[in-house]
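Annual report, structural modelling task.

Input specification for the flavin-adenine dinucleotide complex:
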Amino acid sequence: MTERIVVIGADAAGMSAASQALRIAGDAVQIVAFERGGHTSYSACGIPYWVAGDIDEPERLIARSPDAHRRNGIDLRMRTAVEEIDLQAGRVAAHDLAAGRSYRESFDSLVIATGAVPVRPPLPGVDAVGVFGVQTLDDGAALLADLDRAQPRRAVVVGGGYIGVEMAEALVRRGVAVTVVDQAAQPMTTLDPDMGAAVHQAMQGIGIDVHTDTAVTGFETSGDRRIRSVVTADGSIPADVVVLGLGVRPNTALARNAGLPLGDQGGLRTNVQMQVLGYDCVWAGGDCVEVLNLVSGQYQHVPLGTHANKHGRVIGHNLAGSYATFPGVVGTAVSKVCHLEIARTGLRERDARRAGFAYVTVTVRSGTKAAYFPGTRQMTVKMIAERCTGRLLGVQIVGSEGSAKRIDTAATALWNRMTVEEITALDLAYAPPFSPVWDPILVAARQAAAAVRQTGADRSP
Ligand SMILES: Cc1cc2nc3c(=O)[nH]c(=O)nc-3n(C[C@H](O)[C@H](O)[C@H](O)COP(=O)(O)OP(=O)(O)OC[C@H]3O[C@@H](n4cnc5c(N)ncnc54)[C@H](O)[C@@H]3O)c2cc1C
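The model returned the following structure:
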């Protein structure tokens, strides 16, 4: 008998799930996918680089078009929003936005891959002309059209997370004077403040005016409703264009209305096969779910494309009767601002405290290549390890080209619950163009192991 699968949301998680299920099960599954937008399987991650001018055509950010999915056998309904899920009856109510027609579609299995909604603060003037989000390709196109048409000279980016920082750099590269406003003490709060300070400095180094500890309270407009300035507790900042980078929340209103349980952060929770807890025929993945942090043991909302694609693959395998699991995350992420690469994995100090760990930290500065090798640059590694046991808890890296991807060694060590002492013995590659003879991760691990031994010595009678 053919299994009928309905997928809601046709980007990373949804279409990975659909394609994988079809690849394995073939004619044994019939897949109907609904997408309320106009694009499928595209890289939102590339939007800042498109705005900066590194990528000329938005089509280059699209991995698979609606037609390509249809040719592969998926019954894809574009510009069609699912408005209701009836779990008891096993069907969804969909609304074709172009035709203005509503209809129902039944399912044996349902995949919820509705992504996230960007935070848009309910502040006066937030809907002014010239205030943009950068969540979708359409958002990117609208911003680019405005940059071409209005030729703004001054931009304010609200939010200093990785999207805010990447967008600030993109606007600087287009010749716009940029101010970033964030209510936190440093940009990039995914790092500890001491490491965020290096990001702050790098942003200032390319001419970005960074206002930290500053809350936005509203947006002032001119007579034509166009943005004129961003209002903060410390005064107004003139702006011809504003980009909002305030993070996202799981898009789960549909799931909640269907009676599905949500976690503390508003995301769906699943078992390791990505089945919604307590509902065998409902699967969920991507930015609409919370995931288990394997270091802290706590659920978190970690809206990243890398997870969404893995979730989709796992859902697809399991829908097709094969078997795959997504055990959780260790919290790895990477970004850059100008020449400065920024990476993190595991817990920050505040996460470690919240999770109840006693810990030591070390911070080392090292080169990206052998000291004598042309082009070697500085990088800083901060390592956090559990006191007494020496278990690795987290690593943060900021530095020049060649720094950031070293985080993958740390992520692998975290995944395997290694101690910093064990890391010191890792067989990492060395040749002068790539690394000092002691890789910066090994240097940090050696110092962390010494700090852990010291905590043992302090405890001995
Ligand atoms: C500017 C930017 C930069 C980023 N950079 C990175 C990066 O460098 N690295 C990284 O790992 N991640 C990055 N991300 C995050 C990454 O893009 C997301 O995590 C990923 O797209 C999530 O995929 P998803 O399938 O869960 O959700 P989405 O991509 O949001 O897709 C969900 C889809 O569901 C549709 N939908 C929602 N509700 C309905 C409904 N009721 N009916 C029909 N359709 C519906 C939406 O229209 C949407 O197309 C970035 C994101 C942005 C915005």
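The radius of gyration is 24 Å.
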